[in-house]
Design a protein that fits this description.
3-stranded antiparallel beta sheet, mainly beta
Length: 108
């Protein structure tokens, strides 16, 4: 019986249904000023913020001159599923360099 209480012939099979996870390559959105050279005085603090996108949620890695950064007394990396930030307190000459944000997931 169907929902109307009537007997009916079975319908044709729809065929196999496959559920796939949605995949989106990682993307970064940040203020364009971070793509240019930033000059500041020794002792000043700086922070770089970025919004991150991708499915599945990408892994986040901050680099300076191609070396991975980790949290220290003066450097702090904070990341959620959708944002990341790099903060440096009391900058010194050794903090000069090219900072890179690297995102990875199965899409790229």
């Amino acid at each position: 019986r169907n929902a109307a209480g009537v007997f009916s012939e079975p319908s044709e099979s729809t065929g196999a249904i496959t559920a796939k996870d949605e995949v989106e390559p990682p993307r970064i959105s940040m203020d364009p000023k971070y793509k240019q050279m930033i000059v500041l005085n020794a002792g000043e603090a700086f922070k770089i913020d970025a919004d991150i996108y991708g499915k599945p949620i990408p892994s986040v890695q901050w680099l300076k001159d191609n070396q991975e950064l980790v949290n220290t007394a003066r450097l702090e990396i904070k990341s959620t599923d959708f944002t990341t930030s790099l903060s440096v307190k009391e900058a010194v000459r050794v903090d000069s360099g090219a900072y890179t944000l690297l995102l990875k997931n199965v899409g790229g």
